[in-house]
Each structure stands twice: as C-alpha cells, then as structure tokens.
Design a protein that fits this description.
Distance between the termini: 14 Å
Shape: globular
Number of strands: 8
Helix content: 55-70%
Strand content: 5-15%
CATH class of the largest domain: Alpha Beta
CATH architecture of the largest domain: 3-Layer(aba) Sandwich
Number of domains: 3
Structural class: alpha/beta
Largest sheet: 4 strands, parallel
Order of helices and strands: HHEHEHHEHHEHEHEHEHEH
Number of helices: 12
C-alpha cells in the first residue's frame, strides 16, 4: 500500500514555487523578444514544472485510492460451544500468529453441538446448520473460516470442495495438529471431555496417516466430568486419567481447544509429547491467507 509521503508535499511546494518564478520571468521579460535558445529553455522548464505539479497533485489521490482498496484480511471463527478459556486460547493463538493486521469475527451456534450430543453423531440437521453458518461467513466477506469444534470435523472435511470453489478456506482446527501427531509417533492417545469429539478426530488421524503412508495405533481417553471444572480441578483429573495411557503413548493429543492450557503440565508430568490445537489452527489459517496473497 502506498502512503502519502513528505516528498509529495515537497514536490507540490517546489512545483508551485517554480510556477511563480516562471510567472515573474514572463512579466519582467518580453518572451517574444528573447532569443530562440532562451525561448526553448523557458518552454522546457515550464513543461517539466507543470508535469511535476500534475503528478504531485495526483499522487495523494492515488494513495487515497490504494488505502480504500486495501482492507484487513477477515477471519471468521465458528464455535459450537464456548468457555472463556476456550475463546481466550483460540483467539490469542490467532493474534500471536497473524498479528493485528487481521480482523477476527466470531459466531456461535450452540444448537449444533446440542443436537450432535443428543443424536450421538452428526445428523443432517446439525450438518445443515453448520453448512449454513459457514456460508453466512462467506456472504459476510470472510477470507478464511476456522472451525473450532472437534465434533463437526467430519462436516468440515466434507465441505472442502465447496470451500475451494468459493475461494474461502474452511480450516478444521485439528487438521495440522493431527498431521504433527502422525509425524511424531505411531502410538497416539486422544483425550477428550465430550464423546462426540473422539470419533471425528480419530477419523482425521486415520485419514492423514493414510495420506502420509503411515500406520497409527489410536487409543482414546474420555475425561468424564471434565468440562466446566476450574483449572486446578481439571489438571488434577487430567493427570489421573492420563497416567496409564501415557505409558504406552508416543504422542498425546487434546481433542478440544478448551483443554489446551493443560498441555505443558501433562508434558512435564509424564515426559510425553503433548499437542493441543489452537496454535496449529492459527498456523493453518496463516498458510491459507498466504496462499491467497493476503499475508506474507
């Protein structure tokens, strides 16, 4: 984006000053009585000054047009369930990765998760609601959409063709975390506080392992009663539930962003690689924006 610089103002001042000098020359001398050589010099000086004045006056207008045509990239975040900690972790990770040159918008439809939890799987109703939520963000001008809920990972994957056609990437927050887990080891433990998150993330791991030509062994741990606990109580419950699974794991991944603050604690406690999705999701968003030429 071009800025209006001090040199533009200097050029305008110089051009105006030069015009005043030329005016004085024409007044004090009879142009027609000067020699042809002097006439040519005056003509050249006059033309170059007028050109300089024209472009100096034009450049601020061009800069203003550039400013109007350059807007911040817009990233929409879809939540189906939230806690203050969840929103803090996700949005902080995005700001750390993308900086403040990106506009973040959020939308939440708790009915999507509620229906999935009731049905035990993704029925057509929550799937349709989720698709409509994504399309609303597209209509509202989003350049990329981050899908935070693990329970809807299957829908997000199914919609990749639509997202590619519309030119608005739909990014599952777990995708790159799962890819990193497959890179790190064969035996992967998935920890979640909601049963509906375990199946989709397990399928994501298996799909990515096939894409990478690797084989994985997945075990799952449901942290029953963990959602909604305060940090101290949740860490204590996590330590208890993951003690035995950690012994047979190469990597532990947290299926939900709301669990992210426990990652370092569990890693230090059991000496295992522990991955959570906010940072991986933020990196995936940045890659998507870079591919669109909206970031460097």
């Amino acid at each position: 984006m071009r800025n209006i610089k001090a040199i533009d103002c200097c050029n305008i001042f110089y051009a105006a000053y030069s015009c005043s000098i030329i005016n004085k020359l024409f007044i004090r001398t009879n142009f027609l009585q000067t020699t042809p050589m002097h006439q040519d010099i005056l003509r050249s000086y006059f033309c170059s000054t007028i050109a300089l004045l024209f472009f100096s006056l034009l450049s601020p207008c061009t800069a203003a047009a550039d400013i109007q045509n350059t807007a911040k990239p817009k990233v929409a975040i879809i939540y189906t369930v939230t806690t203050p900690q969840l929103k803090t972790d996700v949005e902080s990770a995005l700001k750390d990765e993308l900086g403040f040159g990106v506009e973040l918008t959020t939308c939440e439809d708790a009915s999507i998760f509620k229906e999935i939890a009731e049905f035990g799987y993704v029925d057509r109703s929550p799937a349709a609601k989720y698709a409509a939520t994504y399309l609303d963000q597209v209509k509202n001008g989003a350049d990329a959409v981050l899908s935070v809920c693990s329970s809807v990972a299957d829908i997000a994957y199914a919609m990749q063709g639509t997202a590619a056609f519309l030119g608005v990437p739909l990014i599952d927050i777990n995708e790159e975390m799962c890819r990193e887990a497959v890179r790190k080891g064969r035996k992967i433990t998935v920890a979640a506080t909601f049963p509906s998150a375990i199946g989709p993330i397990g399928r994501t791991l298996e799909r990515i392992a096939r894409e990478m030509g690797r084989r994985v062994e997945i075990q799952t741990v449901l942290i029953d009663g963990g959602f909604g606990l305060d940090k101290k109580a949740f860490k204590s419950l996590m330590a208890k539930e993951l003690k035995e699974p950690a012994e047979s794991s190469d990597v532990i991944i947290f299926a939900q962003s709301s669990m992210a603050y426990c990652a370092d604690y569990i890693k230090e406690l059991y000496g295992k690689e522990v991955l959570s999705n906010p940072k991986f999701g933020a990196k995936a968003v940045k890659i998507a924006l870079c591919k669109k030429g909206l970031m460097q």
